[in-house]
Amino acid sequence: MKTVVIGHKNPDMDSICSAIAYAAFKRATGMENVIAARCGHTNERIDFGLKKFGFEPPVFVHDVHPRVEDVMEHEVVCAHVNAPVYEAMTRIGEKRFRGLPVVDGDRHCVGIVSGFKIGQYLFPPLDRISSTRVVEASLTAIRESVHGKLIAGEDNDEVRPHLLVVAAMHTTTFQKRLAQLDAKSTVLIVGDRWNIQEISIQAGVRALLITNGAIPRKNVVLAAREKGVPLMVSPHDTATTVLLARAAVTAGQMLVSDFKSVTPDLPLREARHEVAMSSQFAFPVLGPDGRLEGILSKSDFLKDVPRQLILMDHNELTQAVTGAEEVPIIEIIDHHRIGVAPTHQPILFLNRPVGSTSTIVANCYQQAGLPIPPPVAGILMCGLISDTLNLSSPTTTDVDRNVLGELSKITGITPGDLASEIFSVGSPLLTLSPEQVITADCKEYTERGARFSVSQIEELSFSHLHEQQTALIGALESYRAANNYLFSSLLVTDVNTQNSVLLVRGAASFTRLIDFSEEGPSAWKLDGVVSRKKQLLPYLTGLIARSAL
Ligand SMILES: [Mn+2]
């Protein structure tokens, strides 16, 4: 049973980091075969956090619907296309199968050997009953099939029709009979009847097969050598020898090549439909290269899917990995509103109104009395800092503060330092051009006939603002001019300190009214202002009203 610990779709830092850490926690508590997974792509910031503490992004799992490979038989009993059908029949008998897939040297499936087809070969309809005397196989295959020993002459691998003739008659009758046969294709099967043996050697039969383990006389052996007639001895009685000789045909001759196959990744739901519509007894499971990877039988649908889920940082199925509704969910660790679907079994559902799921995972370690390994503590810090904007978001609780303090002790890393590292990665100021920074989140407004724009970006510090400030102001001026605005502005918010810097380019009649303290040319410090809608816009519209007076 594999346990997949997985966060929500469109993963954020918290859902990725908490999944990795919780999988580590479950392993530490003794659970086996636990993996962390994700069902969406990571971003630059997440990759940075993982790499900093030595983790790879978790396995990408886009769909957990039960698939053919989950229940198919992996250890496939199959027959080689050139193997004697007797061998295939033996395996079918041993395993109580109804047939076997047949493969070539590259393990490509060429068909299915069917018990029914073999039955028809051994017991053909009455109008074709004479065909039971013919076996299309090599002499070597016939000898091996009857467990025979070569006494004289040579093995021969040429596959061709051989006529099985049993000499169970008087010598003179036999001579007459032999004269009517094509000696060159006759395999003569006889017991210790030395005169019959000599006659057939002289007639130049294709091979002489002596039954009951009877050791041929010297003169017979010599004659066979002289005439180049292969002389074989079967340990079985005549009736058994004939039967086994017939089974010397290859599996390849007894196969149904018009068969239905399935692929390992086919959803089980679709496979069930296909199987129900077919009379085939089993379905070879073929990989993309056509090689045999498994076999699917109808009884496989009764098996349990060997996979279960632990949902991290979400509990609503709409946010969960595709197919989650068809797989057992054994645990949910979350800090969101509750919208979980009813479950069949009682499960562990840990939902705490704290700032991050990473906080809850840290609590799990603490409650179990297990030490948090420093790399795990590191990514838990990443998840916690990222979800709570380094404890500044209104969702932050004392639990988060305490946990972050503990994690910081374990890693020896100051939360503030880690926060600035995390938020400087993939920050708009570092990854976007000044023109892109202006337009990434830009809103246009009209007030008293004046049009203007207010853009906003969020950073975790102003450390990258100062070096970009001149370029940003230049970009604002171009943007304002191109759109003929009264002014264009950019609010750069430090989500860590909850302060902003406002850059404005526009008519002097407007900008001279701005009464915040200046932070260089065309820049002002707006301490405590983070909301464009609730804080900045009322201020700006107030200035417009005053400038019009
Ligand atoms: Mn979260």
Model description:
It is a single chain. The chain is an alpha/beta fold. It folds into four domains: 178 residues, inorganic pyrophosphatase (n-terminal core) (Alpha-Beta Complex); 103 residues, CBS-domain, CATH 3.10.580; 98 residues, Udp-n-acetylmuramoylalanyl-d-glutamate--2,6- Diaminopimelate Ligase, Chain: A, domain 1, CATH 3.40.1390.20; 117 residues, DHHA2 domain (Diaminopimelate Epimerase, Chain A, domain 1), CATH 3.10.310. 37% of the residues lie in helices and 22% in strands. It has 20 helices and 24 strands. The strands form five sheets. Strands 3-2-1-16-17-18 form a six-stranded parallel sheet. A hairpin with a 4-residue loop joins strand 21 and strand 22. Helix 12 packs antiparallel against helix 13. The chain is elongated, with a radius of gyration of 41 Å. The model has no long low-confidence stretch (mean pLDDT 91). Bound molecules: manganese (II) ion (MN). Manganese (II) ion binds next to loops. The site of manganese (II) ion (MN) has 6 residues, from loops.
Q: What is the number of helices?
A: 20
Structural class: alpha/beta
Percent range for β-strand residues: 15-25%
Instruction: Report the biggest beta sheet as strand number plus sense, adding barrel if it closes.
Output: 6 strands, parallel
